[in-house]
Amino acid sequence: MSEWYMEYEIEVNRPGLLGEISSLLGLLRVNIITINGVDEGRRGMLLSSEDDEAIERFELIASTMEMINVRKLRHPKLRDILAVRHGRYIQRDADDKKTFRFVRDELGILVDFMAEIFKQEGHKLIGIRGMPRVGKTESVVAASVSANRKWIFLSSTMIRQTVRSKLAGDEFSGNNVFILDGIVTRKATDERHMQLVREIMRMPSIKVVEHPDIFVRHSEYTMDDFDYIIEIRRDNDEEITYDKLEQNDRMSGRSGMDFGFNI
């Protein structure tokens, strides 16, 4: 049983059109898993079939139908699955295909997106850009829960500043999601912390780096090492500026309110 994604544009919208398409798929023994609108005037379907030739026959028949225009018919990608699930495509950078953009009101879709990535096996390196208190860490934790993965902070400011220099027991499991804050790791003076980061980076596991641009600026890693880059903004016009982030970090350090600790 193989899965397919079909997206079609409605050329002539009339009553009973969806029923006719569904009946045709049924005659070809193609099952409809999910259906939803994915854009204005377009519908997306997740399909399953034991015979790929049935999909080819449907594509041939659909090409003769004046009411619809099949735009996509392929094995589903992650964006296709989420588009049908949420009723629209997530925003992707036109130039950098591994960069995906979200606003704070879309955190539910973001969590779903990351959870699907976290469910995959093997190495995945994910960078998250965003200004303070936009929901970066909370989204990663929620996605870990959704994917039934344990999360481990290597460095963080979620509750108080944390810098880990060692892990113990099942914390080294490749099934965990490892989270680090690029700014905190950059500030770390304990070489054992960087040794731990390098060790985790070599593991076939999920790694999430907040503020990846600052992280690569002060390490041997580059942006090419990342599989996904996620940007979170309060609104579409918000600018993510690292100069402001670093300035806030310096002011926090001078204020004496740093309750950080090493483990």
From TrEMBL:
InterPro entries: ACT-like_dom_sf (IPR045865), DUF3388 (IPR024514), UCP021288_ACT (IPR016784). It comes from the Bacteria. It holds the Pfam family DUF3388. Residues 70-252 form the DUF3388 domain. This is DUF3388 domain-containing protein. It comes from Bhargavaea ullalensis. The lineage of its organism: Bacteria, Bacillati, Bacillota, Bacilli, Bacillales.
